[in-house]
């Protein structure tokens, strides 16, 4: 795919700001979702700040050669939950989050050192295109459920139902019919807003000229938001509550001072009360944190590798060679620690960012840098942060259909040159796709191995299994082919030898 802006290109400032805003919108939903899921007072604004800092650290380690944004990692949700086990006052709480991120970051550092001295050829042997291609596809396909779920949801749905979906009649719970009809109507409105977003994004990307072609997400999101705002405006008419897609009450937070500055994780972590230093068995607790974070870091390493293989194929430059896998790992690991220090959430490379590069064909690292700065500054701009938070799920779902789809398709492109007529390749690809799409995930206490990691591990094992005698088989086939060629050559020579006398005799007869 030919890039309009290469890695080293610097768009003009007006375009640069638009491209950066587009990247920010692409990674926004997932980045702020993690602290909202964890709760315990974690702030989306702090997570956004941490993502910006982590990305800048990553860019520094990669010498500004890799156009990837780091955001809050969903893989560590279980680990972060373990940090808050027993409540903030009964554990190390936020300090546990920082300690866990340090453990995870050190895993990356250790792997980076191994890669520095051992090179990456062993990785190419263990994870060739036949393994990494379908794994990248699974990253996109595994997120498909999230995109469709968001497409059918509106930000204000819980406000509409107001806890009255079920009523108790003579001791029996029954669903209230009118509330259910409101929910169905609301779902249709949300679907319409999401499809408008997706449609506008597609039209801008395919038929747009110049700038429209490069910022389809911004135009799509603003269009979807405008339609949702119109429906929400009519929802205040009595009986039309189902039309309320946007929750504008979120802007009431502007009246509070807390909305104007993020509550950084390290501030709470080193506060005696918030940090929970009253824990009686800190050693055991830190051991629990280590067990919860370290295995997951190895899992996220697989996703790190897949994302960088993917972006390398998109920009047609092998990032594992330049700037080098050891540098991307160091940037990701140290950036993850920095992100958790401010926002509490360990960071990871974002497929949404990769998808945005693919669709807009803008691989400028300068864009990623400005996006990181925007994320940091927006943490202190309450109106902007609240506006981003007010974007309905259905609107982001419409955009994510395209984003996640591009991730899946880019993975499938990696196996275009793989011979699927070979059973060895066919089995490897099949196992990865079915394990990933089927949602094969394993949990061991607080440690969860995601479907992407499970699919990758199973694919590696399958590839090793079908290639145990691969070289011997290829050698024997080569010997047999050579023998057949030699035999055919000998037959041709003999045929020629027998043909020559016949030709001479025929020539003599004709002369006579």
What's a quick, concise take on this entry?
The chain is 70% helix and 4% strand. With 512 residues, it is mostly helical. A hairpin with a 2-residue loop joins β5 and β6.
Features:
about 5% strand, globular, about 500 residues, two-stranded antiparallel sheet, mainly alpha, 6 strands
Task: Itemize the secondary structure elements and their pairings.
Elements: H1 13-38, H2 44-61, E1 70-72, H3 77-83, H4 94-118, H5 121-126, H6 129-142, H7 144-151, H8 157-161, E2 166-169, E3 172-175, H9 177-207, H10 211-214, H11 216-234, H12 265-269, H13 272-275, H14 282-315, H15 320-343, E4 347-349, H16 351-360, H17 365-378, H18 382-390, H19 393-413, H20 423-437, E5 442-444, E6 447-449, H21 451-466, H22 470-511
Antiparallel strand pairs: 1-4, 2-3, 5-6
